[in-house]
Amino acid sequence: MNRTLCILLASAAVALTPSVHAIQFQFTFDFTSGPLTGQSSTGLFETTAGFGTKSASNGGLLGFTTTVAGETFDANDDASYPDFPVVVVELNETSVGFIDFISSSGPLGGGLTLSWAPIAGVNAVIYLPANGTVSMGMFRSGPEVVNLPDSGTTGLLLAAATAGVAMARRRAIRR
């Protein structure tokens, strides 16, 4: 009986632990000039849900990554880290107002500038590798939203399943 109660209490604690709901913004850009002409790259930003400016410094930016010409950039490669990159969610919880990422140098020495906004003319990618042969491009798709599961929901389901097993076991012992 005491063990069953302990299991139920531990399960409830897991279920009630606060979790952060995350939204992932996936994007694609195509190079239109330079040595990478015709090549495409994808990337993503992962942020907390809700309105406002999301950056690493305020805890709203949970992750950023993109790979260009075999060189992977993340938030730590940013010249102003942790203040940038930044995502501004303006319209609702599934819309991005602005993305910005400016790298001073990535893992292989290349620099990357990304800028995307729903404003004409603010939609650019510049990749400058260590050898200086610059490639420029444009975003093919603005961010596409992927809602990530809330870990609190998983905990609640685990707690309910454990409670069900405990109740079934208790009934079996009584019989």
CA(first)-CA(last) distance:
15 Å
**Uncertain residue segments:** 14-18
Q: What would you call the quaternary organization? A: single chain
Strand residue percentage: 35-45%
Succession of helices and strands = HEEEEEEEEEEH
Summarize the biggest pleated sheet.
10 strands, antiparallel
| Number of helices, counting only DSSP H or I runs of 4 residues or more | 2
- The shape, in one word, is elongated
- Domain count, please report it: 2
Mean residue pLDDT: 78
State Rg: 23 Å
Q: Which structural class do the helices and strands define? A: alpha+beta
Helix content: 10-25%
Q: Strand order, biggest sheet?
A: 3-6-7-8-9-10-1-2-4-5
Number of strands: 10
Short description:
The chain is an alpha+beta fold and 175 residues long. It has helices spanning 2-16, 151-174; strands at residues 22-33, 40-48, 52-55, 61-68, 71-74, 86-89, 98-102, 111-116, 123-128, 135-147.
Task: Walk me through what this model shows.
The chain is an alpha+beta fold and about 180 residues long. The chain folds into 2 domains: about 1-20 and about 150-175; about 20-150, no CATH class. Helix content is about 20%, strand content about 40%. The chain has 2 helices and 10 strands, in the order H-E-E-E-E-E-E-E-E-E-E-H. It has a 10-stranded antiparallel β-sheet with strand order 3-6-7-8-9-10-1-2-4-5, with no helix packed on it. Helix 1 (about 1-15) runs antiparallel to helix 2 (about 150-175).
